[in-house]
Design goal:
By secondary structure, this protein is of the alpha/beta class. It has a single domain, classed as Carbamate kinase, CATH 3.40.1160.10. It has ten helices and 14 strands.
Length: about 290
């Protein structure tokens, strides 16, 4: 049976969102997009709808994306086996070419196209454009994996001022023109800080930070930077969640008021976080 929401209830929902629309209108919000929400077409559609809606109500929204599964898929088609050290992709010269093709090409332009069909005005760029992400070698063992040296946010600010949604792939370069594969979470945190963003939303495949990784209902709704560090030391935050939380801590310490880890598998989780009382995921704050 079709779920029909009465008009009065719809109006009530919109009026309740008004205070949050006022709060975020004209402010920068950076969304790091990846994980399960990126490979599921229905969820991808919901995320792009959220981005366009926020854009249309006056939020200066910036979308930073990854593309790990797509990179793995193309590598396997070309006979290369993906390798990782401490969660970071080992990137030789051939793999770097694949990363550029997938991130700055296919994935980036697909997202720009989706946003356009939904009524948004988006422009796709990479960290190489305008020298946005200046990088250097992070670790010789990893090859062309980049450590961020500087964010030159001017090109992103220009796009926002002209009414566009910047869609950013995290391929950086140095002043000699060498390109680097830059971790998407780290790049999103640094870009958000450089833009003085009001909020940074990190999409993942868990409800947020869990007190018990085996219990999906043990979500921690909010914690300070100090509490986040304690949970890492205690082993409560472990595995692949550690670098993500460390990026959130870094962003909070760089002045971002609201840094949120939320579940990208939940339809419209971004709107629930920004435009409702309850919010979603885990808030990390200074």
């Amino acid at each position: 049976m079709e779920n029909i929401i009465p008009n009065a209830q719809r109006a009530e929902v919109l009026t309740q969102a008004l205070q949050y629309i006022r709060r975020y209108a004209g402010k920068v919000v950076v969304v790091k997009y990846g994980g399960g929400a990126m490979v599921n077409e229905e969820l991808k559609h919901h995320v792009m709808e959220d981005i366009v809606l926020l854009h249309l109500i006056g939020v200066r929204i910036v979308l930073v994306h990854g593309g790990g599964p797509e990179i793995n898929e193309l590598m396997k088609k070309l006979g290369k086996v993906p390798a990782f050290v401490d969660g970071l992709r080992v990137t030789d010269a051939e793999t770097m070419d694949i990363v550029e093709m997938v991130l700055a090409g296919k994935v980036n332009k697909t997202l720009v196209n989706m946003l356009g069909t939904l009524g948004g005005t988006a422009v796709g760029i990479s960290g190489m454009d305008g020298g946005l992400i200046e990088a250097s070698v992070r670790d010789e063992r990893l090859g062309f994996v980049g450590k961020i040296e500087r964010i030159n946010e001017g090109i992103v600010t220009d796009l926002l001022d002209r009414g566009y949604i910047p869609v950013i792939s995290t391929v950086g370069c140095d002043k000699s023109g060498h390109t680097y594969n830059v971790n998407g979470d780290t790049a999103a945190a640094r870009i958000a800080a450089a833009l003085g963003a009001e909020s940074l939303i990190m999409m993942t495949d868990t409800p947020g930070i869990l007190r018990d990784c085996g219990d999906q209902n043990s979500l921690i709704p909010a914690l300070t930077v100090g509490e986040a560090r304690e949970l890492i030391e205690q082993g409560i935050i472990a595995g692949g969640m550690i670098p993500k939380v460390e990026c959130c801590v870094d962003a909070a310490e760089r002045g971002i008021k609201n840094v949120v880890i939320l579940d990208g598998r939940v339809p419209h989780a971004i709107l629930m976080e920004l435009l409702t009382d309850e919010g979603a995921g885990t808030l990390v704050h200074a």
